[in-house]
Amino acid sequence: NRNEDMPLAFVKPDQAKIGFTSSTFSFNLRSPVNATNAENEALAQKFVDLLCAHSEFKPCVSFGQDNGLVYATVPATSTQGAIKEEDKAKQAVGGVQLVRLSFSPSVDVSAVCKIVEDAVAKIYAK
User: Fold this and answer.
1) What's the superkingdom here (predicted)?
2) Residue 20 placed within a domain
3) pLDDT tens for residues 50-82?
């Protein structure tokens, strides 16, 4: 949408060699061009809702399960514990809240990638 890099942090090869793995990724989507404050505030949840319209995703927080699902949530709105308003503000970038995805080891990577790509395309469609 804006030709911006959105860097992600991954487990480095030297970390993987000593057994460190992570199946959870947290990130902020970029604010769409000319988005209103209300659109930015709703963006993360809209993205999670688009993902969770598919059976490969489930809208909640869960870690370490091997059931083929990706768990998707917006931590600022999660009922899995209270997050202080100042912490919610720190998690938001450009008014857009953090999204967290937790991947099962047996997830269908091709299907999940396609679903994520489609959701991103819908979010940023002009």
Assistant:
1) Eukaryota
2) no
3) 999 999 999 987 666 778 899 999 888 765 556
Instruction: Classify strands 98-103 and 24-28 as parallel, antiparallel or unpaired.
Output: antiparallel
Find all residues with CB under 8 Å of 20, minimum gap 6, and list them: 11
Query: What is the rounded average pLDDT for all residues in the chain?
Result: 83
Residue type, 110: S
Q: Which two tokens stand for residue 38?
A: 């209300």
H-helix or E-strand spanning residue 15:
helix 13-17
**Can you tell me the distance from the alpha carbon of 58 to that of 87, in angstroms, rounded to the nearest whole number?**
25
Number of domains in the chain: 1
CATH number reported for the structural domain that contains residue 71 in this entry = 3.90.1150.10
Are the C-beta atoms of residues 56 and 108 closer than 8 Å to each other? yes
E strands present in 1-124: 24-28, 57-58, 70-73, 98-103
CA distance 87 to 14: 32
Number of Cα atoms under 13 Å in the Cβ half of residue 45 = 10
